[in-house]
Amino acid sequence: MSQDNRVPKIIKDFVGQPAAQTVLSFLSFEDWLSKKENEAQDWVVVARIWRDETTDFFTISALGLFQEDTLKKILSTNSWDVDTHIGHPSFNRHGEDGFVYYSSYEVEKVNAVQFLPFTILREFHGYVPNTFELAQDFILYHEAFYVPEKNEYHRITDDGEIQPVIRIIREKENQTILVEAHHLKDYLAAKKCYLVRYHDHRRHATDDISSYINGQFASCQGTDEKSNFEFWLRTDIPIREYKSSSRLLGKDVVTPYSEPDKRHTNPFSKDRYVNFIVGRDDQGNEVEATCNEDELSNYFTDRGTPHFLTAAYFGREVLGKYYQEPRRYSLSHSYLNCMSIWSIPFDTTSEGLVQVWLGDLGRIPYREQLHWRQFNVTPKGTITKHRWLRDFMAEFADPELDADPIYYFHTAFNQLQKESKAKYDEELFKGLSEEDSHAYETLHLPLTEEWKEFDEQVQALAKVVVDSLNVELLSRETGAVIDGKSIKGSIDLLGAFLEKYGVDEIKKSETLSAFQVVQTTRSTGSAHRKGEKFEKALQKYGLLNLSNFEKFKKLTIDVINALTAITEIIH
User: Fold this and answer.
1) For 358-384, how does the pLDDT look when each residue is reduced to its tens digit (9 = 90+)?
2) What is the mean pLDDT of residues 123-128?
3) Distance from CA of residue 545 to its chain's centroid?
4) pLDDT digit string (tens) for 35-81?
5) d(CA 517, CA 527)
6) Could you give the angle at the alpha carbon of 367 between the alpha carbons of 362 and 373, nearest 5°?
7) What distance in Å separates the CA atoms of residue 417 and residue 401, rounded to the nearest whole number?
8) What pLDDT is stored for residue 111 in this prediction?
9) Which of 121, 125, 243, 367 has the fewest Cβ atoms within 10 Å of its own Cβ atom?
10) Which letter does DSSP use for residue 524 in this model?
11) Residue 94 in 3-state DSSP?
12) Whose CA is closest to 177, among 67, 69, 60?
């Protein structure tokens, strides 16, 4: 009979657990048993030392290698097959008068089953809290790295996603190690092992349970296909103010997948591809095509399908997620890279759309294809001239200034820094710290008309070109200092620098204006509440009636012209 799914599972999870209000259910660990930690689909506890006033939980884990009837042998008894010293190298004596030998304790054989350490308990005689180590080959298998601020180990997937694999929870001397279930079962499948979790849990209560257990001591067994526990309930050994106590001793098993994750055994295989819009038919219906290059036509084969180099178009918002994580993604004017894992060439058209080749979409992960599909639009306009020259005529070509001013900003900024370094042995703009480097790396024309994004980009531009002006260099070269009167700030100091080079008043005003408008837009709007001062600033600088996209483009182009002018002056 099929399961009745009229009640959502999430409700069952919350209200269907055994009641833990009674002392007997508490001492019988009903709340803990109901969780079935070894069958968890998210996080599996693999090691634990957790104590409070009434409870003492202790768990370690080992690997049981596949052999004949391994699972049956492991669960034939509730006693531990290994002890807490598994994984600890030591010297041992063979017999009373025998020879001393070294043992790595890497493998223990019990009841014809070989056990390997998975969690290793390290004890320091109370000098520092005890702690656990996890099997190093599990960490290496997933190429996991430690993230100290989260107390977790993460891995980088073949798609470039960052996933937590190990989670370490500490609270004073308590510690719990959890492993993400999918990564654990994948590892177990590759290793051909079961994970055996060994438990020794104890609880105390102030109530006397003698009447419930008909005496001072009772014990029972609890077994199923994946666990074997023994329970003690007793009142014959009072502990401080506690009249009753209990103990759960035994083990349970986490079973592996039938085979390892295919991304380990064949990481480059792909079996899913998204269809993208590439045009409209005569009736106005959207025409879609696969991005699987094995099914697309190319210069050598006509498969009766669109060519690999068929233009697909996307709203510029498609790039938003990539600007948000500069540690994972880097964008130039023509390339998007996800670390060294995958990349895709792109271009920005005169229609303000992102254009890529259909076949290139098939070379990025399926998860990313789904992301791009959300922003896919019917073709408008055509590819840019510089893309035609670059991709079809094999000629180097820069994008047009109006289409990609950020490219020209980076070019002008870097050229000025180079000239300044050569002439003064210092750069005109101080380098950003690692924490601020994103301001330069992710600078972009706003992808939307949201004020939030406009404010973020204005603040980034101000941080790069206004806040970073090298005041020490300017003061040294001019003999002037910021005094709050004739020279109120770094922009005035830059003005004194330009005067030293004999720049006329008009040229000086044009150059400084580019920095002043960025500073004023930031101070009256992006960094503070917008109001009358902000509107007056926009009107003064000819920005009021422009879209946020055009506002920021004008700011950027004016700064480019200023940077270029300063470069020519000091060259």
Assistant:
1) 999 999 999 999 999 999 999 999 999
2) 85
3) 40
4) 999 999 999 999 999 999 899 999 999 999 988 788 899 999 898 98
5) 14
6) 70
7) 21
8) 79
9) 125
10) I
11) coil
12) 60
Distance between CA atoms of 301 and 276, rounded to whole angstroms? 21
Give pTM, 2 decimals: 0.81
Longest dimension (CA), the chain: 104
Q: Which pLDDT does position 229 carry in this prediction?
A: 92
Q: DSSP assignment, residue 39?
A: G
Residue 224, CB-side half-sphere exposure with 13 Å CA sphere: 8
Q: Which helix (H) or strand (E) holds 493?
A: helix 490-500
3-state secondary structure of 564: helix
Which parts of 53-166 fold into alpha helices (H)? 70-74, 136-141
Task: State how far the alpha carbon of 174 is from the alpha carbons of 132, 526, 535, in Å.
Answer: 11, 46, 57
Please name the helix (run of DSSP H) or strand (run of DSSP E) that holds residue 36, with its range, or none.
Answer: none
State phi, psi for 204 to the nearest 5 degrees: -135, 150
Spatial CA neighbour of 426 closest among 383, 470, 457: 470
The pLDDT of residue 514 is above 70: yes
217 neighbors 233 (Cβ within 8 angstroms): yes
Give the contacts of 523 (CB within 8 A, at least 6 positions apart).
none
Rounded to the nearest 5°, which phi and psi values hold at 528?
-135, 180
Tokens representing residue 413 in the block: 């900024």
Residue 110 tokens read as 């019990």
The two structure tokens encoding residue 387: 């893309």
Among candidate residues 179, 162, 154, 200, the one with its CA nearest the CA of residue 256: 179
CB 387 within 8 A of CB 395: no
The two tokens of residue 191 are: 């290793």
Judged against a pLDDT cut of 90, whether residue 241 lies above it is answered with: no
Which of these, 405, 410, 415, 431, lies nearest to 570 by C-alpha position?
A: 415
User: Mean pLDDT in the chain?
Assistant: 89
- Mean of the pLDDT values across residues 332-337? 92
How far is the C-alpha of 336 from the C-alpha of 255, rounded, in Å? 40
Contact residues for 26 (Cβ-Cβ < 8 A; gap 6+): 20, 203, 205
Tell me how far apart the alpha carbons of residues 270 and 433 are, in angstroms, rounded to a whole number: 40
The CA distance from 19 to 24, in Å, is 10
- pLDDT for res 101: 66
- Tokens representing residue 244 in the block: 């009753």
CA 392-396-400 angle, to 5 degrees, is: 95
State both tokens at 1. Answer: 């009979």
> CA–CA separation, 492 vs 559, rounded Å?
16
Q: Residue 470 carries which side chain, given as an amino acid letter?
A: N
| Whether the Cβ atoms of residue 32 and residue 229 lie closer than 8 Å to each other | no
DSSP state of 68: T
| pLDDT-based confidence at residue 203 (cuts at 50, 70, 90) | very high
Distance CA 558, CA 552 (A): 10
Structure tokens at 146: 């430690």
For 7, 18, 28, 402, 561, the CA distances from 31, given in Å and listed in that order, are: 22, 6, 8, 65, 70
Q: What does the block give as tokens for 182?
A: 């999918």
> Can you tell me the distance from the alpha carbon of 534 to that of 447, in angstroms, rounded to the nearest whole number?
22
Residue carrying structure tokens 């990313």: 368
